[in-house]
Specification:
11% strand, 298 residues, 8 strands, two-stranded parallel ribbon
């Protein structure tokens, strides 16, 4: 989406606070492109570029037709790319960003160091439009690690996990089984909110994945709860949507030596918008309470 900043209603003498306010409003609305002062005829530019292009080579009479140019050692048939989820941004993230993400994540020896590494990481462009990094919270001795998806608008504004109405619902959910926010850990799959609340693209998710994986490794919580489809798929590897995965216990290997139980649940924001699903959340909370008792944690 594009915006003309000259026609935004802001005068030349606008204060810094007013300018920041209009820019934040544009970001929330999904604006990610500013237009120039003068209009551009992209069709005319394309025609002019085509007219300036050199004419195609014409083979000499009697010459054998030439096939497509290929690099030495490569076949003439292009290798088909693997089919991925139907999304306009289903491209593989840049190798450099993935290499940098893996290096930064693996070097962190604590959740605090991992969060610090993310704050300096420049390989994900979501950082440029988000107001805050919203990644990890909670004590190192927590009995449960909750894995969320993407920060909400309230999370982004306040710079903390599960803020606003969804956070209040989450607190009540914990209280119903004898837990409090201060007793659990929380980490997000994607630590920056996409502009306009758009869904993160596959490259963006993939670039953030090393940090999520390292967070799971660093957490000592014996139980993991995933909130929503994205966290469940990222942590367990299942392709099932949350409507099919919720309430099921999975088991994952951590560091190649530990096995931890993982259960999928609806995330609080979905529960708040779909009240009829709260009965499933209560059943899942009772299952979590049962697991805590089985492990001697409650």
């Amino acid at each position: 989406m594009a915006a003309d900043l000259n026609n935004s209603g802001m005068s030349a003498g606008a204060s810094e606070a007013e300018l920041v306010g209009i820019l934040r409003w544009y970001a929330d609305m999904g604006v990610d492109l500013a237009v120039g002062d003068l209009p551009r005829d992209h069709f005319a530019e394309a025609k002019e570029k085509a007219a300036q292009a050199p004419p195609p080579e014409v083979p000499e009479a009697g010459a054998a037709p030439r096939g497509p140019r290929v690099a030495p050692g490569l076949g003439r048939e292009p290798t088909p790319l693997p089919i991925r989820a139907a999304t306009p941004d289903a491209a593989v993230p840049p190798d450099e960003a993935l290499i940098a993400a893996r290096a930064a994540a693996s070097a962190a020896s604590s959740m605090e160091a991992l969060t610090e590494a993310l704050s300096h990481f420049e390989g994900c462009h979501l950082k440029r439009t988000a107001s805050h990094l919203v990644f990890a919270e909670g004590p190192s001795d927590a009995s449960v690690l909750f894995v969320g998806g993407v920060p909400s608008a309230e999370d982004d504004r306040e710079g903390r996990v599960l803020a606003g109405s969804s956070g209040l619902l989450f607190d009540r959910m914990l209280k119903s089984i004898g837990l409090a926010r201060a007793q659990v850990q929380f980490v997000n799959c994607v630590p920056w909110r996409p502009a306009g609340g758009k869904a993160p693209t596959l490259p963006e998710i993939a670039t953030c994945l090393p940090f999520l994986q390292r967070a799971v490794e660093l957490s000592r919580a014996p139980i993991i709860i995933t909130l929503g489809s994205l966290p469940t798929q990222q942590v367990t590897g299942t392709r099932d949507p949350i409507t099919r995965a919720r309430g099921r216990w999975f088991e994952i290997d951590v560091n190649g030596s530990q096995k931890r139980p993982v259960m999928a649940m609806f995330d609080p924001d979905y529960l708040r918008k779909s009240p009829t699903t709260k009965k499933h959340a209560w059943a899942d909370l009772r299952a979590l309470k049962k697991k805590l008792i089985e492990l001697g944690l409650a």
